[in-house]
Design a protein that fits this description.
The complex is a heterodimer. By secondary structure, chain A is mainly alpha-helical. Chain A has a two-stranded parallel sheet with strand order 1-2. The longest helix of chain A is centred in the middle third of the chain and has 37 residues. Chain B folds into 2 domains: 151 residues, Periplasmic binding protein-like II (D-Maltodextrin-Binding Protein, domain 2), CATH 3.40.190; 147 residues, D-Maltodextrin-Binding Protein, domain 2 (3-Layer(aba) Sandwich), CATH 3.40.190. Helix content of chain B is 44%, strand content 13%. Chain B is built from 15 helices and 10 strands. In chain B, strands 2-1-3-9-4-10 form a 6-stranded mixed sheet. A 4-stranded mixed sheet of chain B has the order 6-7-5-8. In chain B, strand 1, helix 2 and strand 2 form a beta-alpha-beta unit. Chain B starts with a helix and ends with a helix. Classes of the chains: A mainly alpha, B alpha/beta.
């Protein structure tokens, strides 16, 4: 929570007349664009994620087993990279429009073509790579819905559509809202895509005010306003989850036979799953691969392996630490449900919606203050200078990752913990098992899937993370994301493709593992491929 | 014991973190750089420097303002000896915030002209970046072009592509306008410019050039090294686009072409001050100056270095003689002005 606090602390100082200027000129734009982006991306992620999850969890159709995991793949694609590839493809000067113009001999005023670099464009891009969060949580919820419910509704004569709208969807609502809130938080924090598309949101505003006008106070106040958006989201999510407790009434966990979709319905199902996969992963990855094939011999050198190692190690370290913290917080909340603990947990999760740069500076300021204090003390009492102990080290980087991505880990761990009903603890204890054994023999087996989910989600997120790495990293230390950014920022998109593709490929493995973990995480699972 | 393994995990995590936090082993002679120039655009020079002098160079790259923020928050403990930026305004800001120190070097004063360095030696420009008008050769008669100021004329209505006002290149261009004409006139100019946009601002400099080549608009403003980069690209479509666009040097008879510099200054608390000065002098040397032109099509600051073939083909120009530090002072004013003018 430290970074969030230090940002709010800066914001508490009185700001100059920058606000009057903003209010008179661009603030309305920021608010409207940010709201539209949030709503649009949330709606888009639901529209893609929920049908796909419903289809793959209780139906069967051609390719279902592949779609189950492949639908998660867009998660490995950083949003700013998908934005670059689509711009390269669909922009006025890109191959598609050029071909159209040449074929029909059109000029600029002769035809209409959707503008990629626009607010709707940004919404589509973000929805395409973020829907897997909704898909993931929705699928877990649909698979968890007790078979009895499905059977009862079926025996009452409810058709497939009706079952979806009157039973499946309402029961899964808490998970859907949790998924959408993750998606919206990620969309709020996005800088790379909106900046490239020239869409002005709170995030671009923070950068402009901070770095362009040199007013850190007003920037921190904008960031605090952004946090309010997040707070509202979190409250909404909690309110909806409160009702979730009544849903898990237990029951028999065997899998009812899947409803087989054939012909017309099967075709529709395949289309509903193939479209997001195609546009969210296959097409952009294909573009990257074509670019990389051309430029790799020139840009990939002996340092490449080092970059891959750096990225993987950082991601792994941060994922382990975030998991540990999430477990501590999760259990803290479970064992001592004090309002203060709950507030701390909630606050710790807010970092997810804060742009990486703001988190990074929120880490940098307090760490530098600690270093100064220790250094001053050592100089005075020991006559030596300790210099910088934390700033400019990988500790700062990993700390920033945890601050930013803890929410993801918390979500999964929390979801896992709610599945362990207190009655299970009591039952185990009454059978004479020690509390520690309860943890190892009851909790860990039930939690395993959730823990793995948390680990992998943070891992993939850290692989993609750019701003905090860029600002906080030590000398002579680069990651794949940093290299990809440097080349892309120099407007050498094709040159950056090799590194971008490496990020995507490094994320694919964990994503596939993730899908398997979900299959196994529940009682009575049938082993999926 | 199951509990033990959890403690072990914790312990090993902390050991790992402690190991990560250990400072690197110190070499005999070294110099540490915070650089806003991208690694590819500075590392080869630094490697040359290390080879020639035996001094190890450690590098962190990043964005101007973030590096400045890092430098400020680290205070007297900063490991950085040299701050490299790609915008003179940011160097002026760095001086203002007290993180740089003055350097007296005859070598540097001889090699870097006065308009491209701080009067008291807090920072030195190392390469010049010009932002002229680029036009579509098949649709624009260069005879009709004259100045930046003239771009608001009715004949250019709906023919202008421009990058967003988030771009520091446009910010310093407008800062230059304010400096020459005053704020009111500059704002009227910016409004006129916005009225002539063929489409809302978006994309980077290369995107503007491609848009001109593809016919989305006829004119744009872009830094020349982007055009050079496209001419040298291994992507045929980029080379074709670059061939459809030509450089026009505006304002040659009035204020001169808008230029900015990338440059560097020694930090206030540098521990390797002498090495840092040595590196600065190396970066201003003939060989390094030539490299800027050859590798990235930037103009040398040292007027005695002949430009590369690519640069020579674009012709000579008079650069704006305004001291580039002024652009930094007016940067915030420029952003507000563009907000008011509706330049997104």
């Amino acid at each position: 929570m430290l970074p969030v606090f230090s940002v709010v602390a800066v914001a508490l100082q009185p700001a100059g007349e920058v606000w009057r200027h903003l209010a008179a000129t661009v603030l309305t734009d920021y608010v409207i664009n940010t709201l539209l982006l949030m709503l649009g991306v949330g709606a888009g992620a639901l529209l893609i994620g929920v049908p796909a999850a419903w289809l793959t969890s209780i139906h069967d159709f051609p390719g279902r087993r592949i779609f189950e995991w492949a639908l998660l793949l867009p998660m490995a694609m950083p949003a700013y990279i998908i934005a670059y590839t689509y711009t390269g493809l669909l922009d006025f000067a890109g191959p598609v429009q050029t071909l159209l113009r040449e074929t029909f001999d059109w000029t600029r005023h002769d035809y209409w073509f959707p503008q990629v670099r626009s607010l709707p464009g940004a919404i589509v891009m973000l929805a395409l790579v973020l829907y897997p969060y909704v898909y993931l949580l929705a699928r877990t919820a649909f698979l968890d819905q007790s078979a009895t419910v499905t059977e009862v509704s079926r025996s009452l004569g409810a058709g497939p559509w009706r079952r979806f709208f009157t039973v499946g969807l309402p029961l899964a609502r808490p998970s859907l809202i949790a998924g959408v809130s993750l998606v919206q938080m990620e969309a709020l924090a996005d800088y790379g895509t909106v900046q490239y598309f020239g869409v002005n949101t709170f995030t671009t505003g923070i950068f402009r005010v901070w770095f362009g006008m040199g007013d850190s106070t007003a920037a921190a106040q904008l960031a605090t306003l952004l946090l309010m958006f997040v707070f509202v989201l979190l409250v909404l999510e909690r309110v909806s989850r409160r009702q979730a407790r009544f849903h898990h009434a237990g029951g028999r966990h065997y899998r009812p036979p899947r409803l087989v979709l054939r012909g017309y319905a099967g075709g529709l199902a395949v289309a509903a799953c193939l479209i997001p996969l195609l546009f969210g992963f296959l097409l952009p990855a294909g573009v990257l691969a074509t670019w990389a094939a051309r430029t790799a011999p020139r840009v990939v050198d002996e340092r490449f392996l080092q970059l891959v190692t750096n990225s993987l190690l950082l991601a792994l370290g941060a994922a382990l630490l975030a998991l540990l913290l999430a477990l501590l917080l999760g259990y803290g909340q479970r064992l001592r449900p004090h309002p203060l603990v709950r507030l701390a947990v909630r606050g710790a999760g807010m970092g997810y919606a804060v742009p990486g740069t703001v988190i990074a500076i929120g880490v940098m300021l307090p760490f530098a203050a600690i270093d100064r204090t220790v250094d001053g003390w050592a100089r005075e009492w020991l006559g030596i200078s300790t210099g910088l102990l934390l700033s400019g080290t990988l500790i700062a980087v990993i700390f920033a990752y945890c601050a930013r991505f803890l929410a993801v880990a918390l979500h999964s761990v929390d979801a896992g913990l709610t599945r362990i009903r207190p009655s299970m603890d009591d039952a185990a204890r009454s059978l004479g098992v020690t509390p520690r054994a309860v943890l190892w023999r009851v909790h860990i087996p039930i939690l395993r899937g959730s823990l793995l989910t948390a680990l992998l989600l943070v891992f993939v997120d850290v692989l993609k993370e750019l701003p905090a790495t860029l600002i906080l990293r030590p000398f002579n230390f680069n990651t794949l994301a940093v290299r990809a950014y440097e080349l892309a920022a120099d407007e050498r998109l094709a040159d950056s493709a090799s590194f971008a593709l490496a990020i995507v490929l490094a994320g694919v493995g964990p994503v596939i593992l993730l899908s398997r973990a979900i299959g196994r995480a529940r009682p009575g699972y049938d082993p999926v491929p | 014991m199951p509990g033990l393994s959890k403690h072990l995990t914790l312990l090993s995590t902390f050991c790992l973190l402690a190991a990560l936090a250990m400072p690197p082993v110190l070499a005999n002679e070294e110099v540490n750089i915070y650089s806003a120039r991208k690694e590819d655009l500075i590392k080869p020079l630094l490697d040359d420097f290390s080879r020639q002098t035996g001094i190890t160079v450690n590098l962190v790259t990043g964005r101007d303002e973030e590096l400045l923020q890092r430098l400020q928050s680290e205070g007297i403990n900063t490991p950085a000896d040299l701050l490299l930026t790609v915008d003179a305004g940011r160097l002026a800001n760095a001086r203002e915030s007290g993180v740089l120190q003055a350097v007296q070097s005859e070598v540097l004063t001889a090699r870097v002209p006065a308009v491209y360095r701080d009067p008291e030696g807090y920072w030195f420009g190392l390469s010049v970046r010009a932002r002229p008008i680029l036009y579509a050769v098949d649709r624009v008669d260069p005879e009709k072009l004259s100045t930046y100021e003239d771009l608001v004329a009715a004949q250019w209505k709906d023919r202008l592509c421009m990058r967003s006002s988030n771009s520091v290149y446009n910010q310093s261009l407008v800062a230059g306008m304010i400096s020459h004409h005053g704020e009111a006139e500059a704002e009227a100019w910016a409004k006129g410019l916005v009225a002539n946009f063929a489409r809302p601002p978006r994309g980077g400099d290369r995107d503007q050039i491609k848009a001109v080549a593809a016919g989305e608009c006829d004119l744009t403003l872009a830094n020349t090294y982007y055009l050079g980069g496209m001419m040298d690209s291994d992507d045929a479509s980029e080379r074709e686009a670059a061939a459809k666009v030509a450089v026009f040097w505006p304002n040659v008879e009035t204020t001169g072409v808008h230029v900015n510099v990338s440059g560097a200054g020694v930090t206030a608390h540098a521990r390797n001050r002498d090495q840092a000065v040595k590196l600065l002098e190396f970066l201003a040397s003939d060989a390094a100056q030539r490299w800027y032109a050859d590798a990235n099509n930037e103009y040398p600051v040292n007027p005695e270095i002949p430009p590369s073939a690519t640069l020579a083909a674009w012709g000579e120009f008079n650069a704006d003689t305004l001291n580039v530090a002024k652009l930094g002072e007016l940067n915030a004013a420029a952003i507000r002005l563009m907000d008011r003018a509706g330049w997104r």
